[in-house]
Structure to design on (417 residues):
């Protein structure tokens, strides 16, 4: 029990803050708006740290990349497996949320109007698809990279900077050392900000619920319940199918025989990164070759997150319901699929900040005001345990699929090298 409380302490505190804020909003109604500035402080602190977080996180990860054995074949397979399984996760999330209204749209226009005022964003002029693409990927002045409104351009520049640092070799080591050090400092800054998170989130929720009614609080509860049901179904059904495709009945037997340690660790720590050691050992016990497990599991922790991808779909559909946006036709569905993938696959395994990057991307690419960020932060908090479970176990099942492709049909019976 002590370990449970220790591992879940921060999550429990945030959940309690949400509950307290919701109750305060219901009780005090419009009067609860008096604490709104305390929530805005938390929001503004998050906005300030977004740019350095994205740049340092991505550039450092790329600059530190190594070249493992069988890298080419393994990497090509890993990318293919990650993309296919991620698309399946998006489809499952969409099938689960499209028939359901996660939150009532009755107050959508009021909330949208309020959030737009807070973001102070101007209307964009009409542009062609090519102009929008160029504007999304690049900026025409370095100062543009210092704005949170150019998230994709920041990511592109961070990738180029990381590659350049790596290509420079020994002469670039001082830069790499600086990036690593600065990245650690930014993570500590986020941790400091998160000490204030319970107060900020409680005040934000109190003002939101007090101003716009209790329906949105019920929306959070409904979102958590539906997500948990979907996560459990995905865990038992989809991963069993993956194990069968990988190694037939023997693959299924080995998967469920060995997966419990990774499952328990993921739930107990609520951290994909903390689950890496036990997850690597779990994959190897199943029969995955050492080099595949050693490469895929860490990469999966960074770039393959079934739970987070499904969570991204839930976040998008929550905003869709809240703002009364219509989801009709193939184009809308493809947009949700693309945004869910990009917002998750481009975010590395940062214990506290990665979710902020993902949520900012969702808001930016879907065209909602950035002031809606705390709404997605709350959703991320309440679905964190089941999402982490899928993130971790999804990497184990992916290592089995990759082994089937790399080492052939009888990969389970082959001697490990």
């Amino acid at each position: 029990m002590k370990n449970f409380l220790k591992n879940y302490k921060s999550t429990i505190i945030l959940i309690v803050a949400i509950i307290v804020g919701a109750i305060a909003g219901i009780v005090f109604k419009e009067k609860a708006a008096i604490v709104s500035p305390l929530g805005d402080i938390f929001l503004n602190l998050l906005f300030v740290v977004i740019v350095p977080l994205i740049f340092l996180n991505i550039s450092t990860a790329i600059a530190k990349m190594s070249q493992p054995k069988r890298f080419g074949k393994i990497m090509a397979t890993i990318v293919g497996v990650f993309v296919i399984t991620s698309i399946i996760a998006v489809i499952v999330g969409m099938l689960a949320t499209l028939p359901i209204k996660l939150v009532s749209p009755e107050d959508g226009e009021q909330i949208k109007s309020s959030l737009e005022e807070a973001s102070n964003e101007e209307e964009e002029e009409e542009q062609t698809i090519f102009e929008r693409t160029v504007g999304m990927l690049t900026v025409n002045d370095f100062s543009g990279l210092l704005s949170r409104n150019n998230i994709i351009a920041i990511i592109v520049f961070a990738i180029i900077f990381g590659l350049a640092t790596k290509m420079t070799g020994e002469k670039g080591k001082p830069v790499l050392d600086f990036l690593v050090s600065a990245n650690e400092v930014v993570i500590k800054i986020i941790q400091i900000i998160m000490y204030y998170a319970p107060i900020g989130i409680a005040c934000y929720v109190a003002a939101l619920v007090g101003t716009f009614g209790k329906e949105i609080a019920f929306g959070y509860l409904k979102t958590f319940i539906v997500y948990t049901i979907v996560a459990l179904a995905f865990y038992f059904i989809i991963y069993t199918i993956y194990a069968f495709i990988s190694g037939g009945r023997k693959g299924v037997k080995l998967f469920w025989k060995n997966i419990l340690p990774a499952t328990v660790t993921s739930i107990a720590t609520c951290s994909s990164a903390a689950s890496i050691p036990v997850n690597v050992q779990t994959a190897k016990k199943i029969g995955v070759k050492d080099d595949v497990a050693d490469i895929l599991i860490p990469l999966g922790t960074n770039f393959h997150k079934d739970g987070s991808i499904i969570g991204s779909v839930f976040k998008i559909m929550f905003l869709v319901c809240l703002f009364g946006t219509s989801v009709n036709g193939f184009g809308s569905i493809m947009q949700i699929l693309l945004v869910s993938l990009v917002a998750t696959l481009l975010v590395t395994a940062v214990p506290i900040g990665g979710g902020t990057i993902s949520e900012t991307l969702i808001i930016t690419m879907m065209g909602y005001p950035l002031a809606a960020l705390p709404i997605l932060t709350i959703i991320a908090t309440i679905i964190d345990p089941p999402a982490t479970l899928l993130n971790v176990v999804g990497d184990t099942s992916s290592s089995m699929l990759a082994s089937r492709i790399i080492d052939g049909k009888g990969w389970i019976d082959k001697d490990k090298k």
